[in-house]
Amino acid sequence: MQLQWIGSRRHTIPIGESVPPDGWFGARPRNRKWHPAQVSAVSRDALTASGIARRQRALLLPSAANVVQIKYEMVVKAVQELRRQSVLSIYRCFMFKVLPVTDSAVDSITPEVFTLIVQPESERERETVLLVNREEHHVIREGVLLRAHVTFHYQVISPRSIGSNNQGGEFSAAYDCGFVHNDPWVRLTSTSVNTGGYCVVDPGWLAGRGVGTYFMNLIVQWVQQWPDAGVMPIRLLASDASGTNRKRRNQFYEQFGICFNYDCEGKKSGSSRPMKASDLSPLSEEKLETLSSKVIQKPLDAQMSEKAQEIQLLEMEVWGLKNQVKQGYAEMERASRAPFLWAAATHWTKFWRGY
User: Partners of 338 in the beta sheet?
Assistant: First the structure.
């Protein structure tokens, strides 16, 4: 006759036998079955909850505690990264300050520091922050402006730039009142009218995200202070026309009203046509609105205040996660000491709350 057992772990009652078998108070039977006729619904639920408690104690509770611990560590790292970026922003702000050159002809150096927020291309990415330092130099003699140039230095402040030294670049423009035959000229790609320059966005992963268009628009607006000045020619090289870069490069200049005489039908190389600064076209309101979805300019103090608020919120979340970790380990300890009582209390709490 196959025996069926009911009762607790330490006291079992065989069904259909008057004499307990050997080892009744000793080893636990291998195949233990509960007789539905002699175990009430409450006992079955309690015993079943006891089994669930043992499984949760072995598997579920440690896993939940580990999840909370991992989230806590991630938030702590985020707080540390935000603090590092904030301190680094202040340091680079002072690092960008260039001391004036000792020259009696230098009338003024106007620095301005702000941040440029580059929006992420996908949901998995984070926004990229550029710390920008604008410097404008004027050379004045006897009340006449002889030369001027403006430079936009930018430095990448982003988790993507961690471990890389000085990821950034610059955009420059220059003015000279009499470079050729006493006629005023401007150059859109260099700090000097008599030297060539170039426009390139560094690092490369920032290309095509509106950074170059933003700075070139500021440069075009700056050189239009001298509408009668001629624009020094811009030379396009075939080596820069690989892949999709050719179309993007040509559209970059053409959107500001710069026309080119191309050397071939593929438009891989060529030179800009003669033009005045007044012929340049800054971005229209519609294009500026489209650009604002890619890059946003923010004052440095506003950016620092926003980061400080983020740090404060993350620190509050860290505090809450610490409490959750403590409560999780305390709950696991209670379940380990008395799994039956813990399971019964948990079951009753869920029943009382209705779930």
Answer: none
